[in-house]
Write a structure and sequence with these properties.
Blueprint: H1 2-24, E1 33-41, E2 47-55, H2 58-70, H3 72-82, E3 90-95, H4 98-123
Parallel strand pairs: 2-3
Antiparallel strand pairs: 1-2
Helix pairs in contact: 1-3
Amino acid sequence: MAAGDRAAKMADRIKEIIARRLEKGLRDPRLGFVTITDVRVTGDLQHASVFFTVYGSDEERADSWAALKSATGLLRTEVGKNITARLTPSLEFIPDALPENAAALDSLLKTAHERDEVARQSSVGAAYAGDEDPYVKPRELDDDED
């Protein structure tokens, strides 16, 4: 598992380098408020998938994605200068669906909470359909039956 550990360490380092470079800024006006959420490096350390989110509308997301694609060479050069590896991995920027997934989960949780509340309201004042204790109990034998 040494290769997996090395890939994970390199992924963390690449994430830091790219985030620091984006914090300094690029000269592309299309770039919006970008957050690097995750980086995954292949086992042979040749390719890095960089996941990002953009705060804003769909148009701003598309513009930021285009800006990151055009700055891939610059960012790869920056990564190559700051890592200690023989080869610099190629970079691929992938928009992360984290905000959309979070919104979908929030809506599902809200729906479940509403349904739980409806069920709780309908159970107020309800009584059991059968005996209070529906479980079968062992018979108690009288002394006379022996």
